[in-house]
Design goal:
Elements: H1 2-16, H2 21-29, H3 35-42, E1 49-51, E2 74-81, E3 84-91, H4 102-118, E4 122-126, H5 137-153, E5 159-163, E6 166-168, H6 170-176, E7 180-184, E8 189-191, H7 195-202, H8 208-212, H9 214-219, E9 226-228, H10 231-244, H11 283-290, E10 297-299, E11 307-314, E12 317-324, H12 335-350, E13 355-361, H13 368-372, H14 375-388, E14 393-402, H15 403-408, E15 418-421, E16 426-428, H16 432-439, H17 445-459, H18 463-467, E17 473-474, H19 480-490
Parallel strand pairs: 3-4, 4-5, 5-7, 6-8, 7-9, 12-13, 13-14, 14-15, 14-16, 15-17
Antiparallel strand pairs: 1-2, 2-3, 10-11, 11-12
Helix pairs in contact: 4-5, 12-14, 16-17
The structure holds hexanoyl-coenzyme A (HXC).
């Protein structure tokens, strides 16, 4: 019996070594942890239960029959994060560069299927070179099965992809279909084809960082939702993110204990808006002062900074925040900001996370650059996303709400449940000067000045909208958290029936 038990331990030890000491050392030298070290850090201590540790590939081409490594380049299983069950797979770069074979794919598929049955999140830790080249179509077929499951799980269980090494091919397509992608700075890359292939096909010489580093995907392409300095920070932040997310689309958001009173007032908010309406202020200050204990997990902080998206809690329960940022481009809505916010709003709605929207928007960004880039379609995405929401929507206009952007930003007309304005709000078709120059074209400077004053007095306030009931109440800035908390409690059982249809036709 002892021999049998020892043999099991030996086989386990062999599997735990992955691609061997030398490759593990190389992994560490690059500043990366191994697949197993990452799992240890990410999950609650001792909670990991592994599946398929002894699975090997079945390929006999290109000498592969001589190189079988137990586990086949991916560590899979389940465990807990602060007591809540999650499923995960962690690609092992030390084994064939973490590349995906037929059997490697089957391990991932098993985790995806089990997570769907148990209705728990799936987290993929990626450090892999795509399809295993030696396996050809067997690997491509494996990816197809993974992709299909990504899509079936979308909107049912949260799916998070963490990019922790050079990732190519299927190892970027699968993440692209999940809810969130996070990267590690300087050690992780995402590209459909790597720098060598780029050189061969287009003659372009480009480094991995320039082609698909965190600096590219968090700021330029918007493919990644955030980046962290190293593996350790990244994994600890992923634990924090999991704490905000529901387990599935029917579970409701998690409730955590908080010492922060829901009716806390904040007098400093009464002076947040500068006297000069053209002066910027930081909308994140408002978010941080409204959420429990100032704890805010920002999504896509480095991309389209003119809009802020992220998760916070009120009375211990997760809320999605969307806010125009007057510090960047005066908070204008452009294509990137619209796409970023639309995706976030749709995630929240799919997973029944209430949304609080802070509005200070001078309108949509004019110009050929935006129009040629499809601003009409991209802006429509955000309008569509809000209009489609069935989750509680609470909107607070802090200052400007001009033009179509007023409608888009969770106005009463597209489904806002509670629409509040601060006394500093200005709700109009456009700013006073622009408006008067159009309706009094050719007027003398004195006439223009007089009409501008009149327009400002009449329209640049919250009261015209409040007189019509488009704004439910004009509230004191210091009471914003209390009003939102009461509103969310009142809306806790919101239920909206939508007409039966196969699916909508979002302007993608
Ligand atoms: C088999 C692979 C591999 C792969 C890497 N390796 N990628 N083995 N299939 N796809 C192996 C290498 O042979 C090497 O083995 C080890 O992993 C480490 O790779 P290196 O190249 O030494 O590492 P590095 O210099 O860091 O470069 C990493 C890399 C590069 C950028 C990922 O390996 C690369 O470009 N790989 C190919 C990427 C690719 O084109 N994949 C196919 C995509 S098509 P040894 O034994 O030397 O340690 C695809 C289709 C899916 O995925 C469908 C999409 C819709």
């Amino acid at each position: 019996m002892k021999d049998i038990l020892d043999r099991l331990e030996e086989r386990r030890a062999e599997a735990r070594l992955g691609g061997g000491e030398k490759r593990i050392e190389a992994q560490h030298k690059r500043g990366k942890l191994t697949a197993r070290e990452r799992i240890e850090l990410f999950l609650d201590k001792g909670s990991f239960e592994e599946f398929d540790m002894f699975v090997e590939h079945r390929s006999n081409d290109f000498g592969m029959e001589k190189t079988k490594i137990p586990g086949d380049g991916v560590v899979t299983g389940w465990g807990t994060v602060n007591g809540r069950t999650v499923y995960l797979f962690s690609k092992d770069f030390t084994v064939f560069g973490g590349s995906l074979s037929e059997t490697h794919a089957q391990k991932i598929i098993k985790v995806q299927d089990m997570a769907m049955k148990a209705r728990c999140p799936v987290i993929g830790l990626f450090d892999a070179g795509g399809a295993r080249i030696q396996e050809g179509v067997a690997a491509l077929g494996g990816y197809g099965e993974v992709f299909k499951r990504n899509v079936l799980a979308s909107g049912v269980i949260p799916q998070i992809s963490v990019i922790m090494g050079p990732c190519a091919g299927g190892d970027v397509y699968s993440p692209a279909m999940t809810d969130f992608i996070f990267m590690v700075r300087d050690t992780s890359y995402m590209f459909v084809t790597g720098p060598d292939v780029v050189k061969t096909v287009t003659n372009e010489v480009v480094t991995a960082e320039e082609l698909g580093g965190a600096s590219v995907h968090t700021a330029k392409s918007g493919v990644a939702d955030g980046a962290f300095e190293n593996d350790v920070e990244c994994l600890l932040q992923m634990r924090r993110l999991i704490d905000f997310l529901p387990s599935n689309n029917e579970s409701g958001v998690p409730q955590w204990p908080t010492l922060d009173a829901a009716d806390r007032l904040d007098d400093s908010l009464d002076t947040l808006i500068p006297d000069n309406p053209n002066k910027p202020y930081d909308i994140k200050e408002l978010i941080l002062k409204v959420v429990d204990e100032g704890d805010f997990f920002e999504i896509s902080a480095g991309y389209a900074k003119n809009i802020v998206t992220g998760f916070g809690r009120i009375a211990g329960k997760t809320v999605g925040f969307v806010a125009n940022q007057p510090m960047v481009l005066a908070g204008v809505l452009d294509s990137d900001a619209s796409r970023k916010a639309a995706r976030f709003v749709r995630f929240c709605d799919a997973f029944n996370i209430p949304i609080v929207t802070f509005v200070d928007v001078p309108g949509f960004l004019p110009g050929t650059d935006q129009e040629y880039g499809g601003l009409i379609k991209h802006g429509a995405k955000l309008l569509f996303a809000y209009s489609q929401c069935t989750v509680p929507l609470i909107t607070v206009i802090t200052r400007k709400a001009f033009g179509g952007a007023y409608d888009v930003m969770a106005s009463k007309h597209v489904g806002g449940d509670l629409n509040y304005a601060w006394p500093t709000a200005q709700i109009a078709v456009m700013g006073a000067k622009g408006a008067v120059e159009i309706i009094f074209r050719g007027g003398t400077p004195d006439e223009i000045a007089a009409q501008t004053k009149q327009y400002e007095d009449r329209f640049l306030s919250p009261f015209v909208a409040a007189e019509r009931g488009y704004i439910d109440d004009v509230i004191m800035p210091h009471s914003t958290r209390r009003r939102i908390a009461r509103g969310l409690a009142m809306l806790a059982n919101k239920h909206v029936e939508v007409p039966r249809r196969k699916h909508d036709n979002l302007p993608v």
